[in-house]
Specification:
11 helices, Beta-Lactamase, 5 strands, alpha+beta, single chain, 398 residues, five-stranded antiparallel β-sheet
Length: 398
């Protein structure tokens, strides 16, 4: 019904004036009213000792009401002629004697006043009706605009609600003081609660006990300073398990920088944390493997460097035994071989000393190491090179 009314409304804001009645109809109605008054007055005149002219006033007022000022004046004219002819002496004549002039003049004035009052009242009522019609039209137009705005607002709210439910995010909002008053269905499904159960401290209760104090501190700072909230916290799900979420909340402010509301999202980063933990474990294992390989290489190098002087000691020991077992024993050769054994043993000791200094993070010794026979290590090393011993591959003097 409302749509039919709105469709029937004119396009302009002002309604058209009511169409004026035809002149013949207006003046004909005035003539009829006066004629009716005349007939009725003639019928009741014998009941009054004086002319009863009040019905003519009614005819004038009715003519002015239905026909306007022109019809009212026309009724005054006809009524004046009828009263003059039928009721003002001398009767049945348009002449007026001196005694009836005042009475007749008063009738004419009263008829004119009645016509003016009736037409003015009619104009005022028509103006009031027109204003009322215009007001109704404006109210209907305003109602239509308001209904259209409400429909558009409801459509946008529905779209926004669908958007908050469709996007893969947990969305929440709160008042200016930080009280949560809305959570989308994805967030409610995860925590297994209703919106009423998430208000106040209930929202904080879903956070891991070890993370609550940090969350409260950052949330208080964000509320007091009207700055965005960002952080990673563990949130308990409906199954009692905790998952890592990245929470971000931003304030909605007016032109005076006054906070109106808070809006935030929770992003599930549990898989990211698992990936980071796996990466850290892999890095730890790689570092351990690298240390093991380094130690293996170092052990192999140490074994190689120590094995050379030890092999030389064994070879010289066998040679010394051969010189001593000769008949007669070759003591000089045995002494030389014994000296070489001492040199190789000293070199092996020097290698171990340098390895010990390496693990103690001491500076390597630059001076020569004296042998048991009082000769510098550099001289021993040179003499060993001159004899062609295999221990010359170990260069530890620098």
């Amino acid at each position: 019904m409302k749509d039919l009314v709105l469709t029937a409304l004119p396009q302009t804001s002002a309604s058209p004036r009511r169409p004026a009645k035809p002149a013949l109809q207006r003046y004909g109605a005035a003539l009829c009213f006066v004629a009716l008054s005349l007939v009725l007055t003639l019928l009741v005149q014998h009941l009054f000792p004086y002319p009863f002219l009040f019905l003519f006033f009614g005819a004038v007022m009715a003519s002015a009401w239905f026909g306007g000022m022109g019809a009212g004046l026309f009724a005054v004219l006809i009524s004046t002629l009828a009263v003059d002819y039928f009721f003002v002496p001398p009767l049945y004549s348009f002449a007026i004697n001196a005694t009836a002039e005042t009475y007749f003049a008063a009738f004419v004035i009263c008829a004119l006043v009645a016509s003016w009052v009736s037409s003015s009242k009619k104009q005022s009522e028509e103006a009031l009706m027109e204003a009322r019609d215009q007001l109704e039209i404006r109210v209907a137009e305003r109602t239509a605009e308001l209904e259209k705005s409400n429909t558009e607002l409801r459509r946008r709210e529905h779209q926004l609600h669908l958007l908050t439910e469709v996007i893969p995010q947990q969305i929440w909002s709160g008042t200016a003081d930080g009280s949560i008053d809305y959570c989308n269905q994805r967030l409610l499904n995860y925590v297994g609660r209703t919106v009423d159960e998430m208000k106040g401290e209930a929202f904080v209760e879903t956070i891991h006990p070890e993370d609550r104090e940090g969350f409260r501190r950052l949330w208080r700072d964000a509320l007091s300073q009207a700055k965005p909230l960002e952080g990673e916290w563990r949130v308990r799900g409906a199954d009692g398990q905790y998952r890592w979420f990245f929470t971000r909340g931003v304030p909605l402010q007016d032109q005076q920088q006054k906070t109106l509301r808070w809006y935030g999202t929770n992003t599930d980063i549990e898989e990211l944390h698992k990936t980071e933990d796996a990466l850290m474990r892999t890095q730890t294992e790689l570092a351990y493997l690298s240390r093991v390989l380094s130690m293996g290489e170092l052990a192999a190098s140490i074994a190689h460097e120590i094995n050379q002087p030890l092999a030389a000691v064994v070879a010289h020991g066998h040679a010394c035994l051969g010189w001593l077992a000769a008949n007669p024993p070759n003591v000089s050769k045995a002494l030389q071989t014994t000296e070489r054994i001492i040199q190789d043993g000293t070199r092996a000791g020097a290698v171990l000393g340098r390895i010990r200094a390496l693990f103690k993070k001491e500076a390597p010794a630059q001076e020569g190491v004296a042998s048991p026979f009082g000769q510098p290590w550099l001289l021993v090393f040179r003499r060993s090179r001159e004899t062609g011993s295999s221990c010359n591959r170990l260069c530890l003097t620098s």
